[in-house]
Amino acid sequence: MNGISIIICTYNGKQKLEETLLAILKLKATFLWELLVVDNASTDGTAAFTSSLLSDSTIDFRILHEAEPGLIKARLCGLRASKYDVLLYCDDDNTLDINYMQIGYDLMKMNPIIGALGGCGTPVFEDKKPDWFDTYGHSFAVGPQAINDGPMPEYPAELYGAGAFFRKAVLLQFLDKGFKSGLPGRTGNNLVSGEDVEWCYLIQLAGYQIWYDHRLIFTHTMPKGRMNWEYYLRLKQGIASGTGQLLPYSCLFINKNMNDLHYLAHWFKRTAFSFILYLKNKVRIILGKKIVMDEDKLGAIILKAKMKSYFVNAIPAYHHFRKLKSII
């Protein structure tokens, strides 16, 4: 294992990057590493600001430009340009603990079975913490991702992308065979997500494990504009909207040699079950309550987004299933 490439993907991140970059300059490391800042079609002078801030430092850094908007595009840009074996994705509003990179490097070097490794994000609020955050905040990429350190017990397991390490060679074995994400990824106000989960699924299909370690601590800024229930509903809708595109992975975890007929049977079962759940929830709300609570709205939005995702993405997901079968 020859080192770590830290990758920060940012769109108009000039106002929030300084703290993130200064924390990276303080990181401890006994190995080679680099910093790649991917400017994803920014219009606020992000690249010039970053270059100015880092110009007097001694670290190995590069600023990359990805003209096509979208987080997944920026992440792939950084991956392709990286020169080390392990990738560490740091959001432009994260600050990594001083020992973060060293702990991750040591764990992945001592345990070659690790394909991806995640840490624990601590929220830092620009304004008052919402009353609902402690219950629902995990969707903002904060909080513990497992009870114990080591391999995550769920199968398939998944991590949030903020502060996550990935073994590059595992991802490249799919990308070099023509793999393309089945998800559109986040762009602008579009919150459809799941590419973090998709990468974790690929890694496990390749025979590697997903690990968590509580010592990997970072802060994650919670902007005032996102700390409201309306934004959270949109966020959950976006997450649930990726369900249909991830169905091929669920099927291949059951049987890597699953044939088309069995896949279609699984799609029909999932779609029908999702539709029934949505209708039952709708009827329960209509008949059971005069006042619709926030939790009712949340449940209805998630169920509707999942149901719609199975229907709308049926054909693309089927083609993705066939492509995955040919490369795993």
Rg, nearest Å: 20 Å
- Regarding quaternary structure, what we see is single chain
Overall pLDDT:
94
Tally of helical segments = 12
What is the assigned CATH homologous superfamily of the largest domain?
Answer: Spore Coat Polysaccharide Biosynthesis Protein SpsA, Chain A
Strand content: 15-25%
Task: Give the low-confidence spans.
Answer: none
What is the ordering of alpha helices and beta strands?
A: EHEHEHEEHEHEEHHEHHHHH
* CATH fold title of the largest domain: Spore Coat Polysaccharide Biosynthesis Protein SpsA, Chain A
The CATH class of the largest domain, by name, is: Alpha Beta
Tell me how many strands there are.
9
InterPro entries: Glyco_trans_2-like, Glycosyltransf_2, Nucleotide-diphossugar_trans
Pfam families: Glycos_transf_2
Keywords: Transferase
Domain Glycosyltransferase 2-like: 5-139
Explain what you see.
This protein is 45% helix and 18% strand. With 328 residues, the chain is of the alpha/beta class. The chain has 2 domains: 231 residues, Spore Coat Polysaccharide Biosynthesis Protein SpsA, Chain A; 83 residues. The radius of gyration is 20 Å and the shape is globular. The model has no long low-confidence stretch (mean pLDDT 94). One of its GO terms (molecular function) is transferase activity. Keywords: Transferase.
